[in-house]
Specification:
The structure is a single chain. The protein has 278 residues and is of the alpha/beta class. It has a single domain, classed as Rossmann fold (3-Layer(aba) Sandwich), CATH 3.40.50. Helices cover 41% and strands 13% of the residues. It has helices spanning 3-26, 79-86, 104-115, 121-139, 152-158, 162-182, 216-225, 251-262; strands spanning 95-101, 144-147, 197-198, 202-204, 227-229, 239-246, 267-275. The strands form 2 sheets. The chain has a 5-stranded parallel β-sheet with strand order 1-7-6-2-3. The protein has a two-stranded antiparallel ribbon with strand order 4-5. Helix 4 (121-139) packs across helix 6 (162-182) and helix 7 packs across helix 8 (251-262). The chain is globular and about 55 Å long. The termini are far apart. The structure holds zinc ion (2 copies). The site of one zinc ion has 8 residues, from loops.
Length: 278
């Protein structure tokens, strides 16, 4: 790297640091869960030390297919994905990653987000996802973020589309994170793979039937019948990342992946804020 670049990079980092400091004075960072003011060392995670164990990250031991936190770290797949593969009914999506393990507190956090209209949680969850999962998301080699669609009736009840908002915030956060990192690349090595963009490629055509009495595959079929390619979709990316708030059985994500694959998307991944533990 030449001297001019070194100075420019140093200057850019200083400016970013000053901006962060100013923002910190105006809006002192608070814990995403309990709202307490954060100590400087807690700011990276956005959760205070008291709440952190209740909102655990999935971390490095995860199912290579569905991204669920693994009970036994030596396994490659969780029990569910192993069974599915043995029975020849593997997931339709290729793989995915999630940020937090679904604990009682994470469930409460997600409920506040979705049902108490806490839209402010979306940029925080997205920021955290971009920091924690940036490398794995980059490895998906997809720049299209496709929100799992919400039925218009639910949208009217809730007032906002939680998956779409998360996808928009995640695209922004990932682009910011890539920019921040690119100033650290040596000159001439700056990666330019294009920006993460939200593609609203999926639409709900009708409300789904009650799912309680259906098994996994019936659920996927039930959901698939209620999903379609959004009208007006002209450009189909080769690879896409589905965005949803929570991974439960994977049925919804499989149904969405099926529609995308039939439309010509070759690889479908997903990112969610929360997931179960094996
Ligand atoms: Zn807290
Ligand atoms: Zn799995």
């Amino acid at each position: 790297m030449d001297k001019k670049h070194v100075l420019l990079n140093r200057f850019a980092r200083k400016c970013a640091g000053a901006a962060e400091l100013a923002a910190g004075l105006l809006y002192p960072p608070r814990c995403m869960f309990c709202g307490e003011l954060l100590e400087p060392e807690e700011r990276e995670r956005m959760i205070c030390a008291k709440c952190a164990p209740k909102l655990p990250l999935v971390g490095k031991e995860f199912c290579l297919c569905c991204g669920k936190a693994l009970g036994l770290p030596e396994e490659e797949l969780c029990g569910d994905c192993r069974r599915r593969r043995e029975e020849g009914r593997g997931h339709i999506f290729d793989s995915g990653r999630s940020l937090l393990v679904y604990t009682e507190e994470v469930s409460e956090l997600m409920a506040r987000y979705k049902f108490l209209n806490r839209r402010d949680l979306a940029p925080r969850l997205a920021e955290m996802t971009a920091r924690e999962l940036r490398i794995e998301i980059r490895a998906m080699e997809a720049r299209a973020l496709v929100p799992v669609p919400l039925h218009p009736k639910k949208l009217a009840e809730r007032g906002f589309d939680q998956a779409k908002l998360l996808a928009e915030e995640l695209a922004k956060a990932l682009n910011r994170e890539e920019m921040r990192r690119s100033s650290a690349y040596p000159a001439g090595e700056t990666r330019n793979d294009g920006a993460y963009t939200v593609y609203e490629m999926l639409a709900r055509t009708r409300p789904t039937k009650p799912m309680k009495e259906l098994d996994g595959e019936e659920r996927t079929r039930n959901l698939a019948a209620a999903l379609a390619l959004a009208p007006g979709t002209v450009r189909v990316p080769g690879r896409a990342i589905l965005e949803a708030d929570t991974y439960t059985t994977g049925s919804t994500l499989d149904a969405c992946a099926g529609v995308l694959k039939r439309a010509g998307v070759r690889k479908v991944f997903f990112v969610t804020a929360a997931t179960g533990k094996d």
